[in-house]
Specification:
Blueprint: E1 16-17, E2 26-32, E3 43-45, E4 48-52, E5 57-62, E6 68-73, E7 83-85, E8 88-92, E9 98-103, E10 109-114, E11 124-126, E12 129-133, E13 138-143, E14 149-154, E15 164-166, E16 169-173, E17 178-183, E18 189-194, E19 204-206, E20 209-213, E21 218-223, E22 229-234, E23 244-246, E24 249-253, E25 258-263, E26 269-274, E27 284-286, E28 289-293, E29 298-303, E30 309-314, E31 324-326, E32 329-333, E33 338-343
Parallel strand pairs: 1-27
Antiparallel strand pairs: 2-33, 3-4, 4-5, 5-6, 7-8, 8-9, 9-10, 11-12, 12-13, 13-14, 15-16, 16-17, 17-18, 19-20, 20-21, 21-22, 23-24, 24-25, 25-26, 27-28, 28-29, 29-30, 31-32, 32-33
Length: about 350
């Protein structure tokens, strides 16, 4: 069974699944929440889709019918996505600064860990640990079954977005413009790389490189072993999204309204596609289709190799959320408070 259990699917945040999406896609169901689905991105695990809303609830929905299974009050504004593993959903809250573990069966909160600042970041689950960054500038490692603190590491800026995993190294971007590398087991700092603007996105790791965008309009490719820059690519506006990596291509979106494909090793532009508004949505790759949303209200499917438009669905509301793809379905949230499920022709 194919799952999408965390933001950008895997701990390295590559945003890639080998599943193919056959056009045309058709709308299967819509779940209406009571406020916007802003940066909240859905996850999919064992035929349930989980997504937070700015109404303060985390929703669990049957993937086949769209039937609401439960909703859990987190006190959050649903800014970023959750992570699901072993019967637990992990979700942060920017209102009370807690990370919560919630039962996938009944939607019951099992434990909560209190940080000293708002938690906007998406949790990262690796084996028996869950990692979360906070606006208190700390990265925390907790035992996933109990919420007990294992270690914490201080950074020089707020950690408002998720960490990614490279081997035994955690990589986290901060508002001070630095990408921090910490040892998974102890939290020991290994290196940091300084950009020229705040980092408001999650890094992605592939091969020996980690890719991260900055408000300085650049995407950086950094050697994950030593923190040295391999290359950078300049866009026309800030980068607030996580890139996807597939078939030696780095797929990038920017607030300049474009989606770019770059050579993974050289950073050379292979193609670009312009939407009609800014793009916050992080692109994902399903088979050979690039999928992302735009604030122009559309969900896009582009050919990975050429950048040509394969399909486009007008959802009628700006899309900030990032898509999840599982079992031939695409799940995406929009600012009208709706969670959409679109079915591939082959599903």
């Amino acid at each position: 069974m194919a799952n999408w259990p965390m933001f950008h699917r895997d701990p390295s945040r590559t945003g890639f699944t080998p599943e193919k999406l056959a056009a045309p896609l058709s709308l299967l169901w819509i779940l209406q929440t009571e406020d916007r689905l802003f940066f909240a991105s859905p996850t999919v695990y064992h035929q349930r889709c989980y997504c937070g809303s700015r109404d303060g609830y985390l929703y669990a929905v049957d993937t086949l019918t769209g039937t609401l299974q439960w909703r859990c009050r987190t006190g959050d504004e649903g800014n970023l996505s959750n992570s699901v593993e072993d019967g637990l959903v992990f979700a942060g809250s920017n209102r009370d600064g807690c990370l919560r573990a919630i039962s996938t069966d009944e939607g019951e909160a099992l434990w909560a860990f209190q940080t000293l600042g708002p938690v906007f970041a998406t949790p990262l689950v690796v084996e028996n640990l869950v990692f979360i960054g906070s606006s208190d500038c700390n990265l925390y490692a907790l035992i996933k079954t109990s919420g007990k603190l294992v270690w914490k590491s201080k950074c020089g800026g707020e950690l408002r977005y998720a960490s990614c995993l490279y081997g035994q190294t955690l990589l986290s971007g901060a508002t001070d413009g630095c990408l921090y590398a910490n040892l998974l087991e102890t939290g020991t700092g290994l290196w940091r790389f300084k950009t020229e603007g705040p980092i408001h996105c999650t890094p992605a790791a592939h091969g020996n490189l980690v890719f991260v965008g900055s408000d300085d309009h650049r995407l950086y490719a950094i050697n994950a072993e030593n923190g040295e820059k391999s290359w950078d690519f300049r866009t026309e506006n800030s980068i607030r999204s996580t890139c996807a990596v597939a078939e030696s291509k780095v797929i990038l979106t920017s607030l300049d309204g474009r989606c770019y494909a770059l050579d993974q090793f050289l950073g050379q532009l292979l193609w670009s596609y312009r939407t009609n508004d800014s793009v916050y949505s992080s692109p994902v790759v399903a088979g050979e289709t690039v999928v992302f949303g735009s604030t122009d209200g559309c969900l896009y499917g582009l050919d990975l190799n050429s950048g040509k438009l394969e399909w486009r669905h007008d959802l009628g509301s700006p899309v900030i959320s990032s898509p999840a793809v599982a079992e031939g379905m695409v799940y995406i949230g929009a600012e009208n408070g709706c969670l959409y499920a679109l079915k591939s022709a082959q599903a």
